[in-house]
Request: fold
Amino acid sequence: MSLSALFLWPDSPLMGYRIAMAFELDESQLIEAPIDLVWSVITDLPAYPEWNPFVVAARSTLIVGDPIQMRVRLVPPLVQPQREIIFECVPRQRLVYGLDGAAIRSRRAHELASAGETATRYRSHFRLDGRLEPPTRWLLGRRLTIGFQSMTRALALRAEELHRAASAAPAYPT
Reply:
């Protein structure tokens, strides 16, 4: 069997086994902001152009099964459209979206856990698999890594900035 056949038909009965190929990225960060605030930054899609260097625009109902339409800066300065499906949305915990194609599948997860009253543990996870994973990894793996890392850092900065601003606001008696 040729090398190209391994990539095109990894679960062929002629091979007797399945080749598991996946490209995964994991980022984790402690964000000095309450979980509600971090969740609101993630789900405030119209505000993405203000802070997100990777997903520069996004639109969705965030209802499971509905699309999320994004504009992604994968190869700066170019911005490309990306349409995925919402797979899970659990407020204050997890937002998962991705693709379920025959040739390529992806999952992008934003996961949150409280780390006290004013801090949040954030995890960004991305997984890409399917028969087009190897060429996609080769062509775009470095750009995807940079993009997801920059988005994680920008999310933390945005949430912490909003938290500082809210904490510094004077409290007025009612």
Q: What stands out?
A: Helices lie at 3-8, 35-43, 48-51, 133-168. The chain has four helices and seven strands. The chain has one domain: 21-165. Residues 21-165 form a domain with the Alpha-D-Glucose-1,6-Bisphosphate; Chain A, domain 4 fold (CATH 3.30.530.20).
